[in-house]
Protein backbone atom coordinates (compact mmCIF):
# COMPACT_ATOMS: atom_id res chain seq x y z
CA UNK A 1 0.00 0.00 0.00
CA UNK A 2 1.32 3.46 -0.86
CA UNK A 3 1.68 5.47 2.36
CA UNK A 4 1.97 9.25 2.44
CA UNK A 5 5.24 10.77 3.61
CA UNK A 6 5.00 11.22 7.39
CA UNK A 7 7.32 12.63 9.98
CA UNK A 8 8.08 9.32 11.64
CA UNK A 9 7.75 5.61 10.96
CA UNK A 10 5.49 5.27 13.98
CA UNK A 11 3.11 7.86 12.59
CA UNK A 12 3.01 5.96 9.32
CA UNK A 13 2.02 2.81 11.16
CA UNK A 14 -0.79 4.21 13.26
CA UNK A 15 -1.73 7.72 12.25
CA UNK A 16 -2.54 8.15 8.58
CA UNK A 17 -5.91 8.80 7.05
CA UNK A 18 -7.14 6.08 4.72
CA UNK A 19 -9.42 6.07 1.72
CA UNK A 20 -11.72 3.07 1.50
CA UNK A 21 -10.10 0.33 -0.58
CA UNK A 22 -11.70 -1.86 -3.23
CA UNK A 23 -12.60 -5.44 -2.47
CA UNK A 24 -9.85 -8.06 -2.18
CA UNK A 25 -8.54 -10.06 -5.08
CA UNK A 26 -10.57 -13.13 -6.11
CA UNK A 27 -9.78 -16.49 -4.51
CA UNK A 28 -8.90 -19.58 -6.55
CA UNK A 29 -8.65 -23.25 -5.54
CA UNK A 30 -5.40 -24.24 -7.18
CA UNK A 31 -4.58 -27.96 -7.50
CA UNK A 32 -1.66 -29.56 -5.65
CA UNK A 33 1.73 -29.36 -7.33
CA UNK A 34 2.53 -32.54 -9.25
CA UNK A 35 6.25 -31.95 -8.86
CA UNK A 36 6.94 -31.42 -5.18
CA UNK A 37 9.96 -33.37 -3.89
CA UNK A 38 10.18 -33.58 -0.14
CA UNK A 39 13.10 -32.32 1.89
CA UNK A 40 14.37 -33.61 5.22
CA UNK A 41 16.07 -30.33 6.07
CA UNK A 42 14.80 -28.75 9.31
CA UNK A 43 14.66 -25.26 7.82
CA UNK A 44 14.31 -23.68 4.39
CA UNK A 45 13.58 -20.19 3.12
CA UNK A 46 11.40 -18.97 0.26
CA UNK A 47 10.68 -15.48 -1.08
CA UNK A 48 7.33 -14.42 -2.53
CA UNK A 49 6.14 -11.11 -3.99
CA UNK A 50 2.42 -10.62 -4.46
CA UNK A 51 1.32 -7.05 -3.96
CA UNK A 52 1.51 -5.23 -0.64
CA UNK A 53 3.71 -7.24 1.70
CA UNK A 54 1.28 -6.75 4.60
CA UNK A 55 -1.12 -9.32 3.17
CA UNK A 56 1.54 -11.74 1.93
CA UNK A 57 3.09 -11.82 5.39
CA UNK A 58 -0.33 -12.05 6.99
CA UNK A 59 -1.25 -15.18 5.05
CA UNK A 60 2.03 -17.05 5.45
CA UNK A 61 2.23 -16.28 9.16
CA UNK A 62 -0.93 -18.41 9.50
CA UNK A 63 0.46 -21.46 7.68
CA UNK A 64 1.46 -24.53 9.70
CA UNK A 65 5.14 -25.26 9.33
CA UNK A 66 6.08 -21.63 8.80
CA UNK A 67 8.58 -20.59 11.46
CA UNK A 68 8.90 -16.93 10.62
CA UNK A 69 8.15 -14.23 8.06
CA UNK A 70 9.87 -10.95 7.22
CA UNK A 71 8.54 -8.21 4.96
CA UNK A 72 11.14 -6.64 2.71
CA UNK A 73 12.38 -5.73 -0.73
CA UNK A 74 14.04 -7.84 -3.40
CA UNK A 75 14.87 -7.50 -7.08
CA UNK A 76 16.91 -4.29 -6.88
CA UNK A 77 20.02 -2.78 -5.34
CA UNK A 78 20.62 -2.51 -1.59
CA UNK A 79 20.97 1.27 -1.78
CA UNK A 80 17.39 1.55 -3.05
CA UNK A 81 15.83 -0.78 -0.46
CA UNK A 82 13.86 1.93 1.32
CA UNK A 83 10.08 2.33 1.30
CA UNK A 84 9.71 5.74 -0.32
CA UNK A 85 12.30 4.91 -2.97
CA UNK A 86 10.81 1.50 -3.77
CA UNK A 87 7.37 3.12 -4.00
CA UNK A 88 8.56 5.09 -7.03
CA UNK A 89 8.35 1.85 -9.01
CA UNK A 90 11.73 2.52 -10.64
CA UNK A 91 14.11 0.47 -8.47
CA UNK A 92 13.44 -3.06 -9.69
CA UNK A 93 12.47 -4.03 -6.17
CA UNK A 94 9.24 -5.82 -5.35
CA UNK A 95 7.56 -5.69 -1.97
CA UNK A 96 8.18 -9.25 -0.87
CA UNK A 97 8.18 -11.62 2.08
CA UNK A 98 10.87 -14.05 3.15
CA UNK A 99 9.29 -17.16 4.62
CA UNK A 100 11.27 -19.49 6.86
CA UNK A 101 9.60 -22.88 7.05
CA UNK A 102 10.03 -26.51 8.03
CA UNK A 103 9.83 -28.48 4.74
CA UNK A 104 9.04 -31.62 6.71
CA UNK A 105 5.75 -29.98 7.70
CA UNK A 106 4.92 -27.80 4.68
CA UNK A 107 6.60 -28.21 1.32
CA UNK A 108 7.60 -25.49 -1.11
CA UNK A 109 4.97 -26.83 -3.48
CA UNK A 110 2.31 -26.41 -0.81
CA UNK A 111 3.45 -22.83 -0.19
CA UNK A 112 3.12 -22.22 -3.92
CA UNK A 113 -0.39 -23.68 -3.93
CA UNK A 114 -1.37 -21.25 -1.18
CA UNK A 115 0.27 -18.40 -3.08
CA UNK A 116 -1.66 -19.09 -6.27
CA UNK A 117 -4.90 -19.71 -4.38
CA UNK A 118 -5.20 -16.87 -1.88
CA UNK A 119 -2.07 -14.69 -1.75
CA UNK A 120 -2.10 -13.10 -5.19
CA UNK A 121 -4.03 -12.95 -8.44
CA UNK A 122 -1.41 -14.35 -10.84
CA UNK A 123 -3.19 -12.90 -13.88
CA UNK A 124 -2.72 -9.23 -12.98
CA UNK A 125 0.39 -7.55 -14.34
CA UNK A 126 2.23 -5.23 -11.96
CA UNK A 127 -0.82 -4.78 -9.74
CA UNK A 128 -2.67 -6.38 -6.86
CA UNK A 129 -5.79 -5.10 -5.16
CA UNK A 130 -5.80 -1.29 -5.24
CA UNK A 131 -2.00 -1.10 -5.69
CA UNK A 132 -0.29 -0.62 -9.04
CA UNK A 133 3.35 -0.54 -10.10
CA UNK A 134 6.22 -2.96 -10.65
CA UNK A 135 6.88 -2.98 -6.90
CA UNK A 136 3.54 -4.80 -6.52
CA UNK A 137 4.22 -7.43 -9.17
CA UNK A 138 3.43 -11.10 -8.75
CA UNK A 139 6.82 -12.83 -8.64
CA UNK A 140 8.59 -15.86 -7.22
CA UNK A 141 12.25 -15.80 -6.20
CA UNK A 142 13.36 -19.46 -5.90
CA UNK A 143 16.24 -19.82 -3.46
CA UNK A 144 17.73 -23.02 -4.89
CA UNK A 145 17.61 -25.30 -7.93
CA UNK A 146 14.88 -27.50 -6.45
CA UNK A 147 12.59 -24.55 -5.78
CA UNK A 148 13.24 -23.26 -9.28
CA UNK A 149 12.25 -26.59 -10.83
CA UNK A 150 9.10 -26.83 -8.69
CA UNK A 151 8.08 -23.23 -9.48
CA UNK A 152 8.54 -23.64 -13.23
CA UNK A 153 6.67 -26.94 -13.26
CA UNK A 154 3.80 -25.58 -11.19
CA UNK A 155 3.26 -22.50 -13.33
CA UNK A 156 3.26 -24.75 -16.39
CA UNK A 157 0.81 -27.12 -14.67
CA UNK A 158 -1.60 -24.31 -13.79
CA UNK A 159 -1.37 -22.81 -17.27
CA UNK A 160 -2.07 -26.16 -18.94
CA UNK A 161 -5.06 -26.77 -16.67
CA UNK A 162 -6.53 -23.32 -17.44
CA UNK A 163 -7.17 -22.72 -13.76
CA UNK A 164 -7.58 -18.99 -14.43
CA UNK A 165 -9.63 -17.21 -17.05
CA UNK A 166 -6.63 -15.13 -18.08
CA UNK A 167 -2.96 -16.02 -18.68
CA UNK A 168 -0.63 -16.28 -15.70
CA UNK A 169 1.80 -13.36 -15.60
CA UNK A 170 3.61 -14.29 -12.38
CA UNK A 171 7.33 -13.95 -12.97
CA UNK A 172 9.97 -16.42 -11.84
CA UNK A 173 12.99 -14.25 -11.11
CA UNK A 174 16.57 -14.90 -10.11
CA UNK A 175 17.11 -14.92 -6.37
CA UNK A 176 18.76 -11.69 -5.29
CA UNK A 177 19.50 -9.90 -2.05
CA UNK A 178 16.58 -9.62 0.33
CA UNK A 179 16.46 -6.47 2.42
CA UNK A 180 14.08 -6.26 5.42
CA UNK A 181 11.57 -3.43 5.34
CA UNK A 182 11.20 -0.78 8.00
CA UNK A 183 10.11 -1.90 11.46
CA UNK A 184 6.63 -0.41 11.16
CA UNK A 185 5.89 -2.70 8.19
CA UNK A 186 6.75 -5.89 10.08
CA UNK A 187 3.77 -7.98 11.21
CA UNK A 188 1.49 -5.13 10.18
CA UNK A 189 -1.42 -7.50 9.62
CA UNK A 190 -1.16 -8.99 13.11
CA UNK A 191 -0.59 -5.67 14.86
CA UNK A 192 -3.29 -3.70 13.02
CA UNK A 193 -6.23 -6.07 12.46
CA UNK A 194 -8.81 -3.27 12.20
CA UNK A 195 -6.83 -1.07 9.84
CA UNK A 196 -9.15 -0.33 6.87
CA UNK A 197 -6.74 -1.56 4.19
CA UNK A 198 -6.18 -4.79 6.12
CA UNK A 199 -9.90 -5.36 6.62
CA UNK A 200 -10.73 -4.77 2.94
CA UNK A 201 -7.80 -6.47 1.22
CA UNK A 202 -5.91 -8.83 3.50
CA UNK A 203 -8.30 -10.29 6.05
CA UNK A 204 -10.29 -11.99 3.24
CA UNK A 205 -7.08 -13.73 2.15
CA UNK A 206 -6.44 -15.17 5.59
CA UNK A 207 -10.08 -16.18 5.90
CA UNK A 208 -9.83 -17.89 2.52
CA UNK A 209 -6.72 -19.76 3.68
CA UNK A 210 -8.62 -21.07 6.69
CA UNK A 211 -11.64 -22.00 4.57
CA UNK A 212 -9.83 -23.65 1.65
CA UNK A 213 -6.94 -25.26 3.52
CA UNK A 214 -8.07 -25.87 7.12
CA UNK A 215 -5.39 -28.51 7.70
CA UNK A 216 -2.69 -25.99 6.77
CA UNK A 217 -4.09 -23.13 8.83
CA UNK A 218 -2.77 -22.13 12.24
CA UNK A 219 -4.35 -19.48 14.46
Keywords:
31% helix, 219 residues, 16% strand, alpha+beta, six-stranded mixed beta sheet, Peptide Methionine Sulfoxide Reductase, Chain A, two-stranded antiparallel sheet
The fourth-level CATH homologous superfamily is Peptide methionine sulphoxide reductase MsrA
Write the H/E string, N to C: HEHEHEHEEEHEEHH
Task: Describe the strand arrangement of the main beta sheet, using strand numbers.
Answer: 7-6-1-3-2-8
* Residue share in β-strands: 15-25%
CATH topology: Peptide Methionine Sulfoxide Reductase, Chain A
Report the radius of gyration as a whole number of Å.
16 Å
> Poorly predicted ranges (pLDDT <50, ≥5 residues)?
4-22
Descriptive overview:
This protein is of the alpha+beta class. It has one domain: Peptide Methionine Sulfoxide Reductase, Chain A (2-Layer Sandwich). Helix content is 31%, strand content 16%. Strands 7-6-1-3-2-8 form a 6-stranded mixed β-sheet.
Helix and strand layout, with pairings?
Blueprint: H1 9-14, E1 44-50, H2 53-60, E2 66-74, H3 83-86, E3 94-101, H4 108-119, E4 127-128, E5 131-132, E6 138-140, H5 145-161, E7 171-172, E8 178-180, H6 188-191, H7 196-212
Summarize the structure.
This protein is an alpha+beta fold and 219 residues long. Helices cover 31% and strands 16% of the residues.
Amino acid sequence: MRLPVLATAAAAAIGLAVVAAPAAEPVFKAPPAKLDPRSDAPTETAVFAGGCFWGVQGVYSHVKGVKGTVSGYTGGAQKDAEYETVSSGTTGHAESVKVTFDPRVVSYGQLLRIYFSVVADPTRLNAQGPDEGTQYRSALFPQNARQLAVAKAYVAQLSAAHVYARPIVTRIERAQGFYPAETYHQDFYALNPTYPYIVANDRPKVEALKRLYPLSYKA
